[in-house]
Here is the input.
Amino acid sequence: MKVHHIGYAVKDIEKAKQSFMKLGYTVEKKTVDYIRNVVIAFARNDSTIIEMIAPLDNGSPIDNILEKNGEMPYHICYEVKNIEDACKSLKKDGWIILGKPLPAPAISSLEDIKVVFLYDKNIGLIELVEIK
Here is the structure.
């Protein structure tokens, strides 16, 4: 699998944006992901992509990460050709699938691009994105 991006939990995208820009990143516009109750912005620097994820409002799933660990990288996203096949294969290897694959509005407005999160006790949280 090829790395697509690294996900950072942040409290404030505008503040995080300034820090990433000082490191030479170009930051794209923010996207509200109502499915996951978060605000997302991608930062790019050559071939590296950072996904900044902030809570949309109280009760966002990113709140727990921010409360426990503060602002930090918390997942790596990998590209797959077929998300269903990848989930089946990883589940056989002991990965826990944390929900069903859902559209990824921050990555694309096309509904056929989906993401899913998985957990492994040895390396933690990953995300899969289906890139056809």
